[in-house]
Design a protein that fits this description.
Number of domains of chain D: 2
Largest sheet of chain A: 2 strands, antiparallel
Number of helices of chain D: 15
Radius of gyration of chain D: 21 Å
Oligomer: heteropentamer
Distance between the termini of chain A: 51 Å
Strand order of the largest sheet of chain A: 1-2
Shape of chain A: globular
Radius of gyration of chain A: 19 Å
Largest interface: D-E, 49 and 44 residues
Shape of chain D: globular
Largest sheet of chain D: 8 strands, mixed
Number of strands of chain D: 15
Structural class of chain A: mainly alpha
CATH superfamily of the largest domain in chain D: Response regulator
CATH topology of the largest domain in chain D: Rossmann fold
Helix content of chain A: over 70%
Chains: A mainly alpha, B alpha/beta, C alpha/beta, D alpha/beta, E mainly alpha
Number of strands of chain A: 2
């Protein structure tokens, strides 16, 4: 039992980080039809800049986090203005956008390495402090991340559901051509999308750095495929789906190692389990967990 | 011998809790022109999707030439001889107009990769298919676009191409989904002539969805009226105008009073 | 004649390299219903698409009177057209199918309308009571007629001076066509000017103040709607002989 | 090009003449060309690769300076330092091919991982006049690899390392104790883990369990749970500091892990490693590493950091330095540029044929000896340099170090000898 | 600059370009014709090269049979991928296909007893003593060919030179076959499916069959690339089959113009020489950087070139602009 609770908790923590990163990717995809392969590197950037602000510049951690999120947003917007906007105007398809995103990922990843070096970093956060819950050791830093991430996603999901700009975003992803002729400020929608994606990308990176205690410039890339799996699992474009997709993936990956289940799969197979879950779910629900079967017209 | 080519028995299907077709029963006689009319959302297009296999029914049966087809995949149903057109006139935009038509060719040996090693058979068919396609293009008057991307055609021209492509497939039963909507009246008449010629020559059966009542009344042997997923009336064109259920559900009082 | 609310002069344009409009002139007086008819490929819908930046404009002007001042339509970004009083209902895909009915209305609202969101929404639900009970449903679940009503309501949420409609009756059952044209008259009576493109030429012209017949991207005929609807010459050429009787 | 070709030719003629007459070599001097292949830009390995590449460059300049100081002709130059991104064999192959065919180097130092180093071996075996020196490869595969004697390494084989670990663990816990082995799931980790397990069982011990973890895993908590669940008197972990820094907190959180019964490898015999993981988590951890006598490793580190202030600094840096120094010395000693001559040179300066022992701060004297045709024993900064027939460093002493309050203690009483 | 003039390395780059070209050709038939977004293509390469290596090393099977079996297993992999997931929407299929290749890679990574695991092909278990390396037969053929060619071409004709010729002849033949296939009515149907499933289905075409065949043919071609990849490396490692390699294949495909095969070999060479050639970027301003900074900048340059190319010519070097803008 204790082990189950432990694995479940670990899975939830990881899942919440997947979820928060997945949200940005999911939004960008549904609004801009862009599979943002550079998203992983925004995670790395967020963690490294937070480290820089907090540890090198001795700013309070929360200030460092906010500054990093701002930076993530700024870079997302700069890329929008110098690259994505022009590409969309030239009528570039999904694949062209995707390839440019890999190009952006190359540039971003190498820039981070060039600026911050290849050494690993860690935040000045106590990783060890735990309390016992049902026999499981719950790490305080992890619990904090789980709470913050879940709250952040819920808030953003509510924002997307209720606010004017959120509704406009959904309208744009639903039907871009109609949106642009029905008084929706398309530029503002796109800026909002990049803002959320940039800020949440950085936040996910900071959370991952917090949970693991240590990170290198390969962090984002290592997580990217799992995050993409979470996006698809929770149905592309669904904010809550991103969180649920992340949770499902995180929990399944952790629980797969439990001996009570089929004797436990070696933990080196965790990524295989994650992808297998993705494939199996899609076989039964081809449009993801939250997908709706559409009426053919 | 049964002269019904198509029998739809108590077919139902729903999407996300909404019953699109709700126990529809109808049949089509060999060589007839049958029109399906009805208000929007009555389930007409869904009915077509069911017959052509694009949608699987939740319950009910569909028989074509006396054999069940409702569990078959769309291409199997097409192989049996039911060919359809689409409401929005679907053309393959990035294929040439000619290629769009040649897509309709049936039993093309070139469709099978095994015949890649048998170029003789492939090419013979291809030449024959191309000739036939060009002939049809001339009939619908867009042969000058043969080698252009179909994506450059206007809405009306796409309708024509969609129809011609269906004819390429030598159907026994042709399902036409709003073939005349958005086509200007002069062209509609030309189309009707083509269809009439085909009907008399090949004993083709037509089942069509159409909103333009005058056209429907002119060409149909029989009219089926659908509303809310069911058949609410079925009979000779003239009888429809007098049917109170049809007036309520579809025509509206003003039209009927005319 | 006073200055028209919306004026399109010598409009030329099309898609990519293909030219569809070859100099179109349309005038829409305030509080009128103006209908554009003509055969396939005449460029009817292209006029509206040109105004909304979907089709390319190569020459010509379009102006609208807003608060007594003349505003250049082509110099306004498509999503700002609602702010200068132009509403638009495209022919297809004219609602957000993945969003609820209520949200569709929210999205159509702009603060520049000068009215409150709640007030406008309320008036829409009064106008289209069918929609009230389905507020929380996804718009994709609506039937064709309801969709068209929702599309109209969505466009009206910006409280436009002029409403542009692209084939509003296309694909509607006859009974619904009647309802629709009745509704358009009502909208017009409430003070909204209408410019529409229609295949169902006769019905549309019957309710129109003025009509234009377009062919090959040019003005061919024009005149008061009712007169145009029965002009034998025009009927013969453009509406097909069957429609005569 | 023409000039250097002529020089090489002259050197070759001179060398062949010398082989007969055994007169001291290198009056004319040889131009030794060195290149490195290391993962410098990819995720995960970049800091190791960069450190090794920098250290190699430092080694080359050190010998060059010594040559100048000793008045020995010729040169030793770092020609190019190629990046292998993440050490994928195909990329290593590309980089090594460039060094061998375009840059015409005599020595390729690298790459980091065993698989990648074997790829270097494939290139050197096919080319002529190029020797590969792997700087961090520990896989036994390198020993058996058919490299035509063109692939050497400055890092001990897992087989050697495993025996040292076995000795250290059995000394602390007894021969028949239960050991749980944990390793990073790459060739470094699994190779040594497997070698250790075999050696441990042969030694009469028991294995309580084996847990592997992926380098870039999203979390390490389930791995930690699996580790502490096993029956164990001691842990043996084979890992890099970067990934252990993520595992260690997870282990600590289980409250069932004791650092004092944990044995690790030389990767953690390094201040930066202790800093990466955190001193509190490392308290009491013991480990083995190769030991060389008389080398001022700390002094070297200071000198290296001064020369390369931006160097990321990892435990393995010294191995790259040793490889470069050996390459340059071997070049001087070889008196020719054929693969055979260079290989012979490497053995000649690594101590196989005896000779005076020199360390990194005595290079001028070493160069003088070598140029005079004498064999020397270069005692590496990092470990052994005495190459056996397969090009592997032969065993000597391993030290057992331990960490207390962030300080690495070297207690020679615990050392294991072969 | 003299290093730049040495042909040896460029011959190697040419070989790799050719292998990448073959790899990319597999994607061409899937995407360029069928519109299928396969991001797991590298999995097929892994399957074929590992199958070949295992059969030769562990079972002593004849090289030619092993190579053929490798391609066959890649085809089976394609069939499996297609049968299980081809019914998904395009973008979902793309992500799932990544999952497929990653599963293949992780299984290789963790199946020590079969594939040598993380140690690479060198650790593939050998039955008996003195089994050959999997490249032995091939190497002897290459060396024999080299001995014939050296008198004609001189010193440059080394093993690599022969390899380059063989790879490019293979690519040439495959290009010919694929361009022929693209002119059949089979390809016409497949092209139709890339835009719309319903139209071809309504005309009696089994859309799924056509797509599945496209994936399998693409996988066979990917498998052939895998065989050459294995022979060129002489050592296999799971690290060689990262998703990144699939992306390189896509870059070549898109640069070449996706829908036309003729641009593909040129794009492959462009990519190969950009990738390998950027190793020579040591001149000003790169001379101001140290080696590790240059390593970062090199990959950055590849990214920047890619971005600029796609922005300038989103349809690729040889692509048709018109195909992109049709509505």
């Amino acid at each position: 039992m204790a082990e189950f609770v432990q694995l479940l908790f670990n899975g939830l923590v990881e899942g919440s980080i997947f979820g928060i990163a997945a949200l940005g990717i999911s939004l960008v995809y549904s609004v801009l039809k862009l599979v943002n392969f550079a998203a992983g590197d925004f995670l790395t950037l967020g963690a490294f800049t937070t480290f820089f602000f907090a540890t090198n510049s001795h700013l309070p951690f929360i200030v460092a986090v906010l500054l990093s999120m701002l930076l993530g947003v700024a870079i997302s917007l700069i890329l929008e203005f110098i690259i994505w906007r022009k590409l969309r105007k030239s009528g570039a398809g999904m694949l062209a956008l995707f390839l440019v995103a890999t190009g952006v990922a190359f540039v971003l990843r190498q820039s981070i390495a060039l600026i911050f070096g290849s050494n690993s970093r860690k935040f000045d956060i106590d990783q060890i402090k735990t309390f016992e819950f049902l026999g499981a050791q719950i790490a305080q830093a992890q619990l904090a991340v789980l709470c913050c991430a879940s709250v952040a996603i819920t808030v953003i999901a509510l924002f997307i559901k209720k606010s004017t700009i959120g509704k406009n975003m959904r309208a744009y992803s639903d039907n871009p051509s109609l949106a642009s002729v029905s008084g929706i400020n398309v530029d503002r929608v796109i800026i909002a999308t990049w803002t959320i994606s940039g800020a949440f990308g950085a936040l996910a990176g900071i959370f991952q750095g917090t949970v693991q205690g240590q990170f290198t410039n390969g962090m984002g890339l290592d997580l990217l495929l799992s995050i993409l799996a979470a996006v698809v699992l929770g149905t592309i474009g669904d904010a809550y789906g991103a969180l649920i997709g992340g949770f499902v993936l995180g929990i399944v990956m952790e629980l797969s190692t439990w001996d009570a289940l089929l004797g436990g799969i070696p933990s080196t197979y965790k990524p295989v389990v994650a992808f297998a879950v993705l494939v199996i779910v899609l076989l039964f629900k081809p449009e993801g967990i939250f997908g709706v079967k559409a009426r053919k017209i | 011998m049964n002269n019904l080519i198509l029998e739809v028995n108590d077919v139902a299907v729903s999407f996300g809790g909404v019953r699109a077709v709700n126990g529809a029963t109808l049949d089509v006689e060999v060589g007839s022109v049958t029109s399906v009319i009805g208000p929007n959302g009555a389930g007409k297009t869904t009915l077509f999707n069911l017959i052509s296999g694009a949608t699987k029914p939740d319950s009910g049966t569909i028989l074509f030439e006396g054999l069940e087809i409702h569990n078959l995949l769309p291409h199997k149903i097409a192989d049996r001889g039911i060919i359809r057109t689409f409401q929005g006139a679907k053309v393959i935009k990035r294929l040439s107009v000619l290629d769009n038509l040649m897509l309709g060719g049936q039993d093309n040996p070139g469709d099978s990769l095994v015949n890649f090693l048998n170029p003789k058979a492939r090419k013979a068919y291809e030449v024959q298919c191309r000739e036939r396609a060009m002939e049809l293009l001339k009939q619908i008057g867009i042969e000058r676009f043969a080698d252009e991307y179909a994506g450059i055609l206007s809405g009306g021209q796409r309708k024509l191409l969609d129809l011609a492509r269906a004819l390429m497939a030598n159907p026994t039963l042709l399902l036409l989904d709003e073939p005349f909507a958005g086509v200007n009246p002069t062209l509609v008449e030309k189309l009707l002539e083509v269809l009439h010629a085909l009907r008399s020559k090949h004993n083709l059966t037509f089942l069509l969805i159409e909103h333009d009542l005058e056209t429907v009344m002119n060409i149909s042997d029989r009219v089926i009226v659908m509303a809310e997923g069911r058949v609410i009336a079925d009979g000779k064109p003239n009888s429809i105008y007098e049917n109170q259920a049809v007036i309520d559900a579809y025509l509206g009082t003003r039209k009927a009073s005319k | 004649m006073t200055q028209p609310l919306l004026k399109i002069s010598n409009l030329e344009g099309g898609y990519g390299d293909i030219k569809i409009l070859n100099g179109v002139n349309i005038e829409v007086p305030e509080n009128s219903i103006v209908t554009i008819v003509g055969p396939n490929g005449a460029g009817k819908s292209t006029i509206m698409k040109a105004i909304f930046g979907i089709a390319r404009v190569t020459a010509g002007t379009a102006t609208i009177i807003r608060d007594g001042k003349e505003v250049n339509v082509f110099a306004t970004k498509p999503y700002n057209l609602s702010k200068i009083g132009i509403g638009y209902v495209p022919q297809i895909e004219n609602i957000f199918v993945g969003m609820t009915i209520d949200e569709n209305l929210d999205v159509g609202y702009i603060p520049e309308s000068g009215k409150s969101l709640e007030e406008l929404k309320e008036s829409m639900y009064v106008r289209y009571p069918d929609l009230v009970s389905r507020k929380k449903d996804r718009a994709g679940q609506l039937s064709g007629g309801q969709r068209q009503m929702l599309a109209l309501a969505r466009a009206l949420m910006s409280a436009p001076d002029v409403l542009l409609l692209d084939e509003p009756s296309a694909g509607l059952a006859p009974a619904l066509v009647d309802q629709l044209f009745d509704e358009l008259v009502r909208i017009n009576q409430s003070g909204v000017t209408i410019l529409m493109v229609e295949q169902n030429a006769r019905r549309a012209l019957e309710i129109s103040t003025y009509g234009y017949v377009l062919d090959m991207g040019r003005n061919r005929h024009e005149g008061p709607g009712a007169a145009l609807a029965v002009d034998p010459e025009i009927v013969g050429i453009y509406f097909g002989k069957r429609n005569k009787g | 090009m023409k000039k250097s070709k002529a020089l090489v030719l002259a050197a070759a003629i001179a060398a062949s003449a010398l082989l007969v007459s055994t007169v001291p070599a290198n009056a004319a001097g040889v131009d030794i060309r060195v290149g490195t292949v290391q993962p410098m830009s990819g995720a995960g390995f970049a800091s190791y690769g960069t450190g090794l590449a920098n250290a190699a460059a430092f080694g080359v300049t050190s010998v060059q300076a010594a040559m100048t100081a000793a008045g020995v002709g010729g040169s030793c130059k770092m020609i190019a330092q190629e990046d292998s991104v993440s050490d994928a064999p195909s990329v290593v192959r590309e980089a090594a091919t460039k060094l061998a065919k375009s840059d015409k180097v005599n020595f390729i130092i690298g790459s980091l991982t065993s698989g990648a180093s074997l790829e270097v071996g494939t290139v050197t075996a096919a080319a002529s006049g190029v020797i590969g020196i792997a700087s961090a490869a520990s896989s036994p595969s390198l020993t058996t690899f058919k490299d035509n004697d063109t692939l050497f390494r400055t890092y001990p084989s897992d087989l050697l390392q495993a025996v040292a670990l076995v000795k250290a663990v059995s000394k602390a816990n007894g021969n028949s104790s239960w050991v749980t082995v944990g390793a990073i799931n790459n060739s470094f980790g699994t190779g040594l883990a497997t070698a250790f397990k075999r050696a441990w069982i042969k030694n009469g011990g028991h294995i309580g369990g084996t847990v592997l973890w992926n380098a870039g895993a999203a979390s390490y908590d389930s791995e930690a749970a699996a580790l502490v669940k096993t029956k164990h008197d001691a842990f043996v972990f084979v890992d890099y500091p970067d990934s252990f820094a993520k595992l260690a907190p997870a282990l600590a959180r289980t409250k069932k892990w004791d650092a004092k019964i944990t044995f690790m490898t030389e990767a953690f015999n390094d201040d930066s490693a202790v800093k990466t993981v955190g001193a509190s988590l490392m308290n009491g951890i013991r480990g083995t590493s190769a030991k060389t006598n008389g080398t001022d490793a700390a002094g070297w580190k200071t000198a290296f950091t001064k020369a390369y202030p931006k160097n990321p600094g990892t435990f393995v840096d010294g191995s790259g330095f040793d490889a470069a120094v050996l390459a340059c010395l071997a070049g001087i000693s070889a008196g020719g540029t054929s693969s055979k001559a260079l290989a012979k040179g490497l053995r000649n300066v690594g101590g196989v044929n005896g000779g005076t022992a020199y360390t990194w701060d005595q290079l001028t004297a070493a160069v003088k000896d070598v140029a005079a045709g004498k064999p020397v024993t270069y005692n590496g900064v990092w470990g052994y340099t005495k190459f056996d027939r397969a090009g592997d460093p032969m065993g000597g002493a391993f030290e057992v170090w331990s960490i207390k309050d962030g300080v690495i203690l070297h207690d020679s009483k615990q050392d294991v000898q072969f | 600059m003299t290093a730049l003039m040495q042909p040896g390395f460029w011959v190697f780059i040419l070989t790799m370009s050719g292998i990448y070209g073959i790899f990319s050709l597999g994607l061409q038939i899937q995407y360029g014709v069928g519109g299928i977004l396969n991001f797991g293509h590298v999995g097929m390469m892994a399957l074929s090269s590992y199958t070949m290596a295992i059969l030769i090393i562990s079972h002593g099977i004849n090289f030619w049979i092993a190579a053929a079996a490798g391609v066959a297993v890649a085809a089976l992999g394609g069939a499996f991928l297609g049968l299980t997931t081809l019914r998904l929407r395009g973008d979902y299929f793309a992500i799932v296909s990544i999952a497929f290749s990653e599963i293949v890679r992780y299984v290789i990574y963790n199946s020590d007893g079969l594939t040598g695991g993380v140690q690479g092909s060198l650790a593939i278990p050998v039955i008996g003593e003195n089994y050959p390396s999997y490249t032995d037969t091939w190497d002897s053929i290459m060396n024999r060919a080299r001995d014939i060619l050296t008198p004609i071409f001189g010193e440059i004709a080394d093993r690599e030179f022969v390899m380059a010729i063989v790879v490019w002849i293979t690519l040439g033949i495959l290009l010919l076959i694929v361009s022929r296939i693209e002119r059949t009515s089979w390809a016409r149907v497949l092209r139709a499916t890339r835009e719309d499933d319903e139209v071809p289905a309504a005309l009696g075409k089994n859309v799924f069959r056509f797509r599945l065949q496209a994936v399998i043919i693409g996988s066979v071609i990917g498998g052939i690339a895998g065989i050459y990849w294995g022979l060129e490396s002489s050592l296999l490692s799971p690290d060689d089959f990262l998703t990144l390699v699939t992306f390189y294949g896509w870059m070549i495909l898109i640069l070449g113009g996706a829908t036309k095969v003729k641009g593909l070999p040129i794009a492959a060479i462009f990519f190969g020489f950009l990738y390998g050639g950027s190793r020579f970027f040591t001149f000003w301003p790169f001379s101001h950087l140290d080696a590790s900074q240059r390593a970062y900048v090199r990959i950055m340059i590849i990214g920047i070139v890619l971005i600029i190319l796609m922005m300038r010519r989103p349809q690729g070097i040889f692509g048709k602009r018109q195909e992109m803008v049709l509505e």
